[in-house]
Write a sequence for this structure.
């Protein structure tokens, strides 16, 4: 077998069979290891084959080691032979709870041993005595075992009861109503309370409903009150009224299920309080209390197209009259005549006047005809429209569409049949089959049910867990890939149908596992034969068997074994050897296609296996249901401008037909698209969404569970446009004039003209005598085109009724309803009759145009004006109000300032001298809204100057016509206008526009929804259009710029201009002094047609080039020209500049100056001379000169373009002079000069001074011992800087008392011995030749006081410093002197007053004596004399001077030594 796998298995996540649920795998493993449940196990099968019947002996049982029975497991004890066939039943062995873990008791072992010996003896010996003895022994053992079993069963039951109490699953149960709510009948304005008591575990959640709508107690707290206490729940309705009459439902729900209970509330009203306007609550058409409800459904939804996964809303506005405040109709929604209920797929809302249904997540199941039904007490009204659902975008290109309508049938304990419908889209390749997925409710894990795709649209799913709920989905696959999954099915529980009927509260399978109750099995009864076994379904993939359980006892806990037999043989083979089935249904797979089989079924339970059922007839494996034949005779019929009605002949002898798919294709395109994505089970279908004017062909194919049929033959092509039918009846017949033998009638055009123009009308009349009507008579034999007609040959004073029929090319329509009865009597009133034939055109959001025809009956005097009235459509008669206060003489009027979206009606009244006449019939309601795609008339002037009015309509049909009018009268005279119409566009051309063409031009398109527009041609507009027309007839080429001149490199002269727009055929003539010039050596011309730039270039100008230059432009018939005059000084200046530019170009061929020599002042007040040079080489030198003397040479500069600099750090007068830089090399030289003398130097210094001034700090105040000083700092000071000090805005005259000066970078002003006269504003002004800079300070007030006080302090301190006692000098630090010598020291003393002098030795005062003489002479000199020093005079001496200003001391040390001679003498 090949190792390749289909792609759907290669890429499937669960191909390793792990897709099976854990419960299924567990169940399989339990049955495969059946030694835990049966005496004959799969593990001991090999042993049993060799030991024969010993499989049921004691040793076989001991080897299997029976274990305790698991919860809810149903053990079977079956003895099997070597062929694995059941031959008997082994009596189950029970053990006490204390022995569950240890195996058999000794007594049980003996019983088993004896039982085994008995069976062996029965087979080996035939002696009757031995058999009798053995039977007696067995009876005694049986009696003993029965007693023991009864005791053991009691213990097991007690143990089970305890286990159930401890098991949470046993505690949980569905809700149950202990006390149900009771119905009540109450009087109006009374309160009523509904009670119920609910029990369940977990605690149920209780919700109250009114007519299946959940009650919102939060939003209506004043009306409803909900309470829940101790499992008792109540709903209180406050102040009941008539609307509270309803059916109330209380729903209790928990994880085990849901249960509901119902109660009705009837609210009665006292007869005296009865609302006469309210009808009785009775179904069907009624008309009581004078109320007859009329229902109108407006603002309807149309045919809707959606895509899978999208959300759409369908809505209609419902108008019910009369409007009763408290009355609400019943709203119902249907799909394909099936009533819909709110669900997760459908949200329904009723707002009081608008009904909406939202499809939250579209699937193809949602496709169909949706109907809104509004039910009132007087009947009901409906509205329907189709909703189409297209397939969503496939994840894989050309993958099929998703299947649809997945349903579950024949659900049993472990078996469910899943059915679906095939999709209409197969992706271009045939569908290989389908995969079925299942998901257990409460989980999100999807498991694939089939390994290979099935082509049959029905599949039996087995291996389900009983009591659990499942959902299913289906996916289609072709050779390109997998489709999206279908919409999931409704949840379904795997359980016996009879059990489902007995289960209460199982209406919510999504809440988890459903409780399945079982009765205790009857012991010891083997079930009988299954009944009515039959093959219910057979395909080449599987065969489904069904049967009925046996009708005798022993049915509880019964399971089934299915056996098959190949036709022609007597060998029966068990199919489900491992897993007995619980359901009376079974699906057999892996049967050989084409072979015939018979089947039979056996029942089994704990008592044993029953007899087989009667075998079925031989069935051949293969598809029993054939694919239907192709439909035929497909006939398309025109319907509307976007739809076609397709009918066909049904498939012959089609079995179990699901429906039909219709496809459409534009003729010759060979691209088919489905018209429906949900099969239809009729042979006629309306295909919507087609393109108007296109031709389509159609084909149909049938579908059943076996698959899709071949396509029918293609239909004849049909063009999509509205079908033609006879018009509907006219209406609104009124009398416009009446004389003694005739009447003039008018009527309104039919609401539907049948898709073709109305060719005329036929009027009938009949006489009415005493309320009895006569026969109808024709008033006209030939049709009349107008909607007004005079019926003659009537009899005066007789009464008549009239009816009108409309005709078109399809025929004459049905007559209108008979008019009111009119008396034929001549009118003699003075005022006019009613206007008629009111028409509404040009409807916009805020305006419309109303047209009418004047009255036929004029009255005594001619009509001289009209009045227009307006009101909202649903407003009362009293709401009519006039539009115009002044009568208009025209028969048309534009009504403005309408409310957008408003619904209005209009009428017209005529007047003459006698007064205002009768009102016309009112118009149909008109909604003021601009319809999408509405266009207006556009006026255009073409290139030839022809003026035209253009109108385009997007909603035209093949029969549509453009009708042009002037002043709303159809244009008959075409001498002044030419009308051209092509497709959906129409043009009206003015032949010779003039004042007689002034007026209002309008255009209406027939066979549309009122497409019209108008254009007012006023005198001013006509004048403007004529000017534009002239410009187009004699066009001028627009210029972006006029002719100009500019100089280029090398002094070339460029003349140029730019045109705004010129075609490729445009040309230019170049003229100089009226002479045409052309391309040559002197003139280079160029015309760039992309940019519109036109230029002429000359290398240089000579005196002969003085004159006028002109460019003449021509493009088709459009022309223009531009001239430039170059004479006199203008020409000379241009010529001079050209020559200069030529010289400049020559100069720049060698080293040259890009920027000539200049200077700049740095923030540090340094002057830098610099120039920018270019076209430099390595051997180019740059020489600097001052006053003709070289001062610097720059060589080997190393750059092509750069800057040369010369820095002057501290500029002064000596730096004045003429500076020059010379560039030169072998290509030439260039010179740049800078004059820094006189004015040049002055300007430079002024710039330096400006930098100095800007660097100055604010003027500050300080004090000295001599006075007050004002000062400022500058970053750099130059001796040439000129400053001026000001006092009170006047220059200061300096004196000995007021001085100025400079110290470093500080400029100061000293005021000596200041006084209050010196208070005021001081300023210093820096002169930089440009207005200077001034710094100011205010020396007054506190500033002066502080400065003056500081001055006084410093002055006193200075005086004290000068007058204090001082030792001026003269004393050495150390005096070394020989003993016996004389010491004389003198120092200067100063101080005023004269200080006191004190001498100290070793910090002790000494006085003058003969040995030490101390003197102080003239108050200046102090002397210290020792006549003959000795050793004792050594020490530290100090002089201390003191006066009132201070004290000062001077210290010296005296060191006396002994001479060597004196030392030797002493020795």
């Amino acid at each position: 077998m090949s190792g390749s796998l289909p792609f759907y298995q290669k890429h499937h996540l669960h191909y390793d069979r792990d897709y099976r649920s854990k419960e299924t795998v567990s169940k399989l493993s339990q049955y495969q290891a059946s030694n835990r449940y049966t005496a004959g196990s799969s593990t001991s099968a090999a042993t049993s084959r060799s030991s024969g019947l010993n499989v049921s002996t004691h040793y076989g049982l001991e080897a299997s080691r029976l274990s305790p029975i698991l919860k809810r497991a149903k053990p079977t004890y079956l003895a099997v032979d070597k062929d694995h066939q059941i031959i008997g039943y082994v009596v189950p062995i029970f053990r006490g709870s204390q022995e569950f873990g240890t195996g058999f008791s000794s007594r049980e072992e003996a019983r088993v041993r004896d039982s085994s010996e008995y069976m062996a003896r029965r087979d080996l010996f035939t002696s009757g005595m031995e058999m009798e003895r053995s039977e007696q022994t067995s009876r005694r053992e049986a009696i003993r075992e029965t007693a023991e079993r009864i005791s053991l069963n009691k213990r097991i039951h007690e143990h089970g009861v305890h286990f159930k109490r401890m098991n949470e699953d046993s505690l949980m149960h569905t809700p149950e109503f202990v006390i149900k709510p009771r119905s009540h009948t109450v009087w109006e304005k009374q309160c009523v309370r509904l009670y119920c008591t609910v029990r369940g575990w977990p605690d149920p959640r209780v919700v109250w409903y009114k007519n299946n709508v959940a009650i919102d107690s939060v939003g209506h707290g004043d009306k409803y009150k909900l309470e829940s206490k101790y499992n008792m729940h109540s709903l209180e309705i406050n102040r009941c009224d008539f609307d509270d009459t309803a059916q109330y439902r209380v729903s209790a729900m928990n994880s085990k299920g849901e249960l509901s209970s119902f109660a009705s509330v009837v609210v009665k009203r006292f007869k005296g309080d009865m609302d006469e306007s309210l009808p009785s609550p009775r179904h069907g058409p009624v008309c009581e209390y004078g109320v007859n409800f009329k229902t109108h459904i407006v603002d309807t939804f149309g045919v809707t197209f959606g895509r899978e996964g999208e959300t759409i809303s369908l809505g209609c506005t419902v108008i019910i009259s009369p409007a009763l405040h408290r009355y609400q109709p019943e709203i119902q929604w249907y799909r394909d005549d099936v009533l819909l209920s709110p669900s997760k797929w459908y949200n329904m809302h009723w707002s009081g006047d608008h009904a909406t249904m939202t499809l939250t997540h579209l699937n193809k199941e949602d496709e169909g005809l949706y109907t809104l039904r509004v039910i009132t007490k007087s009947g009901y009204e409906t509205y329907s429209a189709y909703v189409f659902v297209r397939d969503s975008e496939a994840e894989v290109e050309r993958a099929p569409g998703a299947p649809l309508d997945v349903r579950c049938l024949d659900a049993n304990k472990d078996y469910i049949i899943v059915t679906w419908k095939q999709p209409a889209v197969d992706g271009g390749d045939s569908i290989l089959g389908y995969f079925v997925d299942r998901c257990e409710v409460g989980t999100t894990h999807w498991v694939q049910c089939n390994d290979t795709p099935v082509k049959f649209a029905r599949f039996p799913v087995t291996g389900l867990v009983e009591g659990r709920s499942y959902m299913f989905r289906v996916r289609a696959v072709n050779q390109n890939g997998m489709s999206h999954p279908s919409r999931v099915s409704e949840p379904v529980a795997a359980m016996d149908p009879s059990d489902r009927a007995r289960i209460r509260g199982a209406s919510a399978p999504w809440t988890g596992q459903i409780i399945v109750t079982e009765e205790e099995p009857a012991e010891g009864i083997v079930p009988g034969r299954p009944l009515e076994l039959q093959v219910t379904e057979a395909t080449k993939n599987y065969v489904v068997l069904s049967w009925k359980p046996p009708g005798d006892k022993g049915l509880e806990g019964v399971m089934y074994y299915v056996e098959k037999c190949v036709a022609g043989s007597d060998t029966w083979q068990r199919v489900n050897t491992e897993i007995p089935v619980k359901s009376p249904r079974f699906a057999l797979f892996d049967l050989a296609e084409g072979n015939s089989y018979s089947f039979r079924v056996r029942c089994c339970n704990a008592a044993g296996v029953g007899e087989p059922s009667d075998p079925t007839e031989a069935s051949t494996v293969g598809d029993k249901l054939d694919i239907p034949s192709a439909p035929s005779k497909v006939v398309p019929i025109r319907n509307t401008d976007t739809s076609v009605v397709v009918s066909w002949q049904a498939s012959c002898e089609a079995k179990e037909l699901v429906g039909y798919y219709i496809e459409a294709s534009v003729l010759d395109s060979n691209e088919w698209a489905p018209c429906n994505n949900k099969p239809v089970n009729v042979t006629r279908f309306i295909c919507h969404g087609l393109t108007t004017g296109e031709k389509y062909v159609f084909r149909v194919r049938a579908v059943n569970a076996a698959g899709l049929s071949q396509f029918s033959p293609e239909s004849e092509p049909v063009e999509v446009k509205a079908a033609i039918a006879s018009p509907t009846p006219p209406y609104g017949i009124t009398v416009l004039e009446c004389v003694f033998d005739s009447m003039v009638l008018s009527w309104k055009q039919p609401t539907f003209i049948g898709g073709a123009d109305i060719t005329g009308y036929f009027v009938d009349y009949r006489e009415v005598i005493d309320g009895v009507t006569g026969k109808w008579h024709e008033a006209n034999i030939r049709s009349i085109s107008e909607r007004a007609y005079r019926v003659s040959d009537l009899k005066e004073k007789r009464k008549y009724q009239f009816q009108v029929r409309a005709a078109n090319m399809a025929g004459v329509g049905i007559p209108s309803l008979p008019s009111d009865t009119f008396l034929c009597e001549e009118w003699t009133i003075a005022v006019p009759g009613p206007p008629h034939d009111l028409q509404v055109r040009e409807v916009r959001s805020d305006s419309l145009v109303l047209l009418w025809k004047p009255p036929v009956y004029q009255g005594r005097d001619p009509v001289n004006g009209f009045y227009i009235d307006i009101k909202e459509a649903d407003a009362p008669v009293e709401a009519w109000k006039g539009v115009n206060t002044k009568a208009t003489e025209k028969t048309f009027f534009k009504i403005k300032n309408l409310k957008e979206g408003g619904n209005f009606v209009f009428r017209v009244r005529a007047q003459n001298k006698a007064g205002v006449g009768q009102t016309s019939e009112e118009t149909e309601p008109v909604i003021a809204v601009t319809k999408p795609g509405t266009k207006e008339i556009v006026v255009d002037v073409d290139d030839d100057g022809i003026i035209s009015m253009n109108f385009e309509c997007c909603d035209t049909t093949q029969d549509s016509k453009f009708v042009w009018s002037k002043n709303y009268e159809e244009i008959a005279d075409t001498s002044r206008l030419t009308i051209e119409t092509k497709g959906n566009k129409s043009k009206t051309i003015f032949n010779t526009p003039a004042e007689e063409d002034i007026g209002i031009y309008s255009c209406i398109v027939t066979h549309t929804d009122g497409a019209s527009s108008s254009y007012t041609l006023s005198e001013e507009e006509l004048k403007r259009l004529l000017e534009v027309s002239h410009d187009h007839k004699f066009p001028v080429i627009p210029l972006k710029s006029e002719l100009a001149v500019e100089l280029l490199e090398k002094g070339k002269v460029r003349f140029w201009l730019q045109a705004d727009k010129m075609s490729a055929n445009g040309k230019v003539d170049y003229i100089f002094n009226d002479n045409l010039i052309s391309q040559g050596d002197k003139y280079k011309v160029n015309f760039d047609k992309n940019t519109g730039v036109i230029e002429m270039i000359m290398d240089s100008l000579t005196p002969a080039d003085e004159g006028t230059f002109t460019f003449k432009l021509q493009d088709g018939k459009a022309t223009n020209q531009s001239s430039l005059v170059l004479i006199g000084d203008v020409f000379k200046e241009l010529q001079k500049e050209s020559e200069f530019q030529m010289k400049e170009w020559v100069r720049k061929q060698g080293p040259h100056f890009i920027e000539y020599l200049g200077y700049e002042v740095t923030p540090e007040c340094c002057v830098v001379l610099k120039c920018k040079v270019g076209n430099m080489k390595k051997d180019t030198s740059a020489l600097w000169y001052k006053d003709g003397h070289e001062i610097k040479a720059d060589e080997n500069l190393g750059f092509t373009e750069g800057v040369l600099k010369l820095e002057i750090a501290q500029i002064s007068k000596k730096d004045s002079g003429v500076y020059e830089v010379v560039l030169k090399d072998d290509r030439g030289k260039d010179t740049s000069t800078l004059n820094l003398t006189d004015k040049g130097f002055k300007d430079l210094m002024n710039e330096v001074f400006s930098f100095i001034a800007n660097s100055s700090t604010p003027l500050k105040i300080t004090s000295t011992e001599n006075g007050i000083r004002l000062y400022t700092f500058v970053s750099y000071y130059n001796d040439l800087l000129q400053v001026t000090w000001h006092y009170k805005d006047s220059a200061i005259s300096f004196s000995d008392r007021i001085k100025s000066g400079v110290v470093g970078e500080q400029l100061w002003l000293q005021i000596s011995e200041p006084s209050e006269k010196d208070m005021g504003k001081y300023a210093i002004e820096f002169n930089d030749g440009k207005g200077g800079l001034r710094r100011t300070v205010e020396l007054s007030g506190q500033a002066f006081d502080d400065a003056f006080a500081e001055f006084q302090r410093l002055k006193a301190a200075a005086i004290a410093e000068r007058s204090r006692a001082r030792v001026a000098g003269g004393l050495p630090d150390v005096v070394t002197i020989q003993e016996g010598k004389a010491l004389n020291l003198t120092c200067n003393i100063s101080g005023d007053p004269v200080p006191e002098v004190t001498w100290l030795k070793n910090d002790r005062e000494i006085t003058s004596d003969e040995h030490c003489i101390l003197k102080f002479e003239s108050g200046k000199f102090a002397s210290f004399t020792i006549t003959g020093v000795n050793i004792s005079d050594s020490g530290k001496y100090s002089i201390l001077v003191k006066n009132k200003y201070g004290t000062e001391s001077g210290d010296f040390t005296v060191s006396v030594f002994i001479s060597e001679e004196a030392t030797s003498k002493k020795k």
About this structure: The first helix runs from residue 7 to 10. The mean pLDDT is 82.
